[in-house]
Design goal:
By secondary structure, this protein is an alpha/beta fold. 37% of the residues lie in helices and 15% in strands. It is built from 18 helices and 15 strands. Strand 9 and strand 10 form a beta hairpin. It is globular, with a radius of gyration of 23 Å. 42% of the residues are buried. The model has no long low-confidence stretch (mean pLDDT 92).
């Protein structure tokens, strides 16, 4: 199977193996399969950071002194590089730096003009950072609609999206790629929503690390990005890429240092600055924002198409190998959630281990065992409750608000729902993943769990989802 897999074109991505050997030696003793959680930084990125800080002095940008101006120049240069990375015209789009994609979503939620008669439409497959916008929508009097995922692939149907949009207007929010199942949702929904009078928030956090995103063609209104997910470094820097027309409709509910043109303490009035910096609160992470430019240049030098091809090939291999794992009696060892092949999906694969009786092995056991074997996978619900509710077939009536009453721990909640486990295992592939990573995980699962009944002894309670 592996030989046939190599013949499919994997060899064309061999340059990534050379880069892994020279730029990512910190992966040598690890099996890293958590790229949806975070990318991995190359040595070159870290050297560029240190060389920049050793070579010059940079100060708080909000001034005209030499060190402040030096920081401002690099920040503005990075804004332009972000727009170029996504083929977004500076006449149409603005870049607002945030701590992460979550901060970008919060910025939209708190400032969007939700009111009675408008709607927030969410796909059930959304990260909680997007789901949280519904709190702002409801407080503004808007109606919130959630579109379910459907079996067998846990996709959202086009006709469900069309029906939900109607003609009221408001905001549609969905991920370009699910951080739970890896499903890549149709980007044609953007133009459909625009035709119906909706703005669109396209969550690109899981999509951007291994896929081209051409904003000049797609033209979503708001795009949250976390840069550490794309290339590992720096953490603490994300951005909101926003169409200027849509940005003009946002109304900030407060002001802070760095956001105002003029303000009076005694008079009680303020005037926000007239550009996108009105949405950047306080002092930016000016020592790290230039590292975003370094990371984007690193990705461009490799080629996003090569990264995409590598992740696509390895995802197909991982799915094939997981499906091949069996207990001695022929029953499956693994249950995969979402698409079972590489069609219309990215490199995020969620699954559970099954015992020889078909029961789900507690994901905390797998978390404990993989950690001991220096394998980095993620376990839980991945901050995506809607995809999890679809994957685990939890009926809507069981999810009504009354289920939370008397609940002290997450385990209490799972007991109320009758679930055997608190989530799934997620293996995700990225820029310098290789066949050896996939085979190491497969060998571990086969050796550790086939025909065995893992003991839950010593597990700590689940604290959160």
């Amino acid at each position: 199977m592996v030989a046939a897999f190599h013949a499919s074109g994997y060899a064309a991505t061999r340059r990534l193996d050379d880069l892994r050997a020279t730029e990512y030696p910190h992966l040598d003793d690890q099996v890293y399969l958590d790229y949806t959680g975070s990318g991995v930084a190359a040595r070159s990125q870290l050297r560029a950071h240190h060389e920049r800080l050793r070579g010059a002095l940079y100060g708080n940008p909000h001034s005209e002194n030499p060190t402040s101006s030096a920081s401002t120049l690099l920040v503005e240069q990075t804004r332009a590089e972000v727009l170029a990375f996504f083929n977004a015209s500076p006449d149409e789009y603005a870049v607002i730096f945030t701590p992460n994609a979550t901060g970008a979503c919060k910025l939209v939620g708190e400032a969007y003009p939700f009111r009675r008669g408008t709607r927030l439409i969410l796909t059930a497959d959304n990260h909680n950072s997007v789901n949280g916008i519904r709190v702002y929508a409801r407080s503004g009097g808007a109606r919130v609609t959630t579109i379910p995922v459907r079996e067998p692939d846990l996709r959202v149907r086009d006709d469900d999206v069309t029906a939900a949009l109607g003609r009221r207007g408001g905001l549609l929010a969905f991920p370009a790629q699910s951080n739970f199942t890896g499903v890549q949702h149709p980007l044609s929904w953007i133009s459909l929503a625009h035709e119906r009078g909706y703005d669109v928030l396209l969550d690109a956090a899981a999509f951007a690390p291994a896929n081209r995103l051409d904003l000049g063609v797609l033209r979503p209104d708001f795009v949250p990005v976390s840069w550490y997910k794309v290339f590992g470094f720096p953490t603490g820097v994300g951005c909101l890429i926003a169409r200027r027309e849509a940005l003009d409709r946002l109304r900030r509910p407060w002001f802070s240092g760095g956001t105002i043109q003029a303000v009076s303490a005694i008079g009680g009035w303020h005037v926000l600055v007239g550009d996108e910096t009105a949405f950047e609160d306080g002092t930016l992470n000016f020592l790290s924002i230039p590292d975003v430019g370094v990371g984007m240049a690193w990705v461009r030098g490799i080629g996003m198409d090569m990264i995409h091809d590598r992740v696509t090939y390895l995802t197909s291999l991982l799915l094939q190998r997981l499906a091949s794992l069996r207990h001695r009696d022929g029953s499956p060892l693994i249950r995969v959630y979402g698409p079972a092949d590489g069609h219309g999906r990215g490199g995020t694969v969620a699954f559970n281990v099954l015992d020889s009786r078909g029961g789900v092995v507690d994901e905390r056991i797998v978390a404990r065992d993989t950690a001991a074997a220096s394998i980095s996978v993620r376990t839980g619900c991945f901050c995506n409750p809607g995809a999890g509710e679809g994957a685990f077939h939890i009926p809507r009536r069981a999810l009504r608000g009354s289920v939370r009453h008397g609940m002290r721990t997450l385990d209490d909640y799972l007991d109320r729902l009758g679930l055997p486990s608190g989530g799934a295992i997620r293996a995700s592939l990225g820029l310098v993943s290789n066949v050896a990573d996939v085979e190491a995980l497969i060998s571990f699962l086969d050796d550790r769990y086939a025909d065995r009944h893992p003991s839950p002894a010593g597990l700590t309670p689940r604290e959160r989802c």
